[in-house]
Amino acid sequence: MMEQRTVHHPILAKAQRLGRLIQQAEEVRRFRAAETQVEKSARVQGLIDEIKRKQKELVHAKHYQKTKYIRQVEADLDRLNAELDQLPIVREYQQSQVEMNDLLQMLQQAIADTVSKKIEVETGGEAPGGCGSGGPCGCR
């Protein structure tokens, strides 16, 4: 069994602070609030359960090649998904997911841009081949 080591590095402490700041962001607060509303909504949960049942029915119908029944179940699923997507609570949840994802992508890009500006990366020309060890493959 591999032994798990705790790595102490100043960057990790700053990453943890950044994580705490992200948790306090308005986008994250809105997402969590919307998520809680969705989880507590009997209507939303009922639709989700019904969609899951219909998906299982569809798998069985496809397995037994029941073409007419497949079309019926697919139509039921389309109707249920449309009904779910039209609920204001679900729309708010989906919008908050998009906003939170945008925030995280923006942070990822900012970190990547900052790192790439500070670290020289070999560009242009041919990328070196081999392992670089000069071992059995003969590269250097």
UniProtKB/TrEMBL annotation:
Gene3D superfamilies on file: YheA/YmcA-like
Q: Which Pfam families match?
A: Com_YlbF
Instruction: Write down what this protein is called.
Output: Cell fate regulator YmcA, YheA/YmcA/DUF963 family (Controls sporulation, competence, biofilm development)
Instruction: Please name the source species.
Output: Marinithermofilum abyssi
